[in-house]
Design the sequence.
């Protein structure tokens, strides 16, 4: 196995060294280190080895992973330097030209979308709450009824702090609900927005993205009310009063029952296109009734109070709102791109 991996590592190193574009380099990174990448799949095989073989096999795969990450990063730096040099040469400035003067700035499209979402929920009497981006493992997972063997807790999906295994960058804004429940008595009607972090990067995922989480908790909250609230929000946000919405039964550890919420594709009107994968539907958010275990964790009596919660990706809503094809465009700091949303 060692010889085979070393041979593959050598072959991959030579291939990556010849890559000439960042797009091609990204494909190599996904192929080798992505969620379904070859190295990731090998890491998943560690648990299948015998206790005697496991340490050596794990060290071998981790070493290969680190070497590939270093090789890809070095090649990326070379390509970036080359692109920078070519850009500077192509955009040489004539210092004899008059100055361009000052121009007005503009809010980032993500910020514009977040403001619109927050305004809609404030109209429905929701209160804004905030929480820390560095969280305890127990508050990020255990408090939300996520078991210790859940895949989200692995290093492949979560950024843990070095030398502090009980601290991590929050993977969802649901943690704000726990902080709120621990320090505030029901009834509650809250939303929270902000960045969250997961080990993922492709056309529709970035390591840092933005979520909105909402929760209503009182003695009479019910699923019917949840459906009405989300339907009103989605039709208002997309400015489509006749927008078709469907709720599909799903599973989330922190809600029961749970549902995924889809809308008719706003680009093709349910006819089928590349954006909706020719299904006519777009998945927008997840929701459900707050699990009793979450309430018990925060010392709230689930026999007296019940609630519902929902969460959605602000980045995804921004892509749909402005018809942006690639999520990564939001984070490239391209001034020509940003100017479109002035």
Sequence:
């Amino acid at each position: 196995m060692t010889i085979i991996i070393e041979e593959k590592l050598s072959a991959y190193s030579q291939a990556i060294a010849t890559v000439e574009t960042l797009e091609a380099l990204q494909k190599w990174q996904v192929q080798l280190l992505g969620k379904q990448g070859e190295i990731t799949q090998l890491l998943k095989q560690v648990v299948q080895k015998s206790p005697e073989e496991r340490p050596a096999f794990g060290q071998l795969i981790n070493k290969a992973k680190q070497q590939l990450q270093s090789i890809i990063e070095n090649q990326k730096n070379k390509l970036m330097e080359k692109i920078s040099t070519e850009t500077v040469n192509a955009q040489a400035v004539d210092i004899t030209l008059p100055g361009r003067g000052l121009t007005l700035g503009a809010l980032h499209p993500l910020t514009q979308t977040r403001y619109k979402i927050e305004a809609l929920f404030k109209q429905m009497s929701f209160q804004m709450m905030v929480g820390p981006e560095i969280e305890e493992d127990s508050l990020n997972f255990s408090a939300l009824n996520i078991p210790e063997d859940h895949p989200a807790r692995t290093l492949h999906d979560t950024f843990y702090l070095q030398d502090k295994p009980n601290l991590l960058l929050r993977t969802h804004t649901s943690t704000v609900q726990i902080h709120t429940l621990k320090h505030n008595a029901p009834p509650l009607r809250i939303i929270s927005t902000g960045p969250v972090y997961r080990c993922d990067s492709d056309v529709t995922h970035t390591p840092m993205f933005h979520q909105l989480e909402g929760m209503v908790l009182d003695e009479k909250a019910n699923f019917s009310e949840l459906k009405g609230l989300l339907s009103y929000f989605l039709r208002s946000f997309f400015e489509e009063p006749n927008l078709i919405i469907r709720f599909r039964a799903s599973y989330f550890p922190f809600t029961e029952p749970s549902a995924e919420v889809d809308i008719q594709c706003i680009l093709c009107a349910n006819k089928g296109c590349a954006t909706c994968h020719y299904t006519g539907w777009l998945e927008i958010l997840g929701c459900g009734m707050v699990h009793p275990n979450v309430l018990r964790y925060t010392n709230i009596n689930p026999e007296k109070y019940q609630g519902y919660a929902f969460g959605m990706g602000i980045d995804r809503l921004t892509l749909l709102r402005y018809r942006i094809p690639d999520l990564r465009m939001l984070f490239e700091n391209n001034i020509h791109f940003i100017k479109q949303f002035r």
Q: What stands out?
A: The two ends are 56 Å apart (CA to CA).
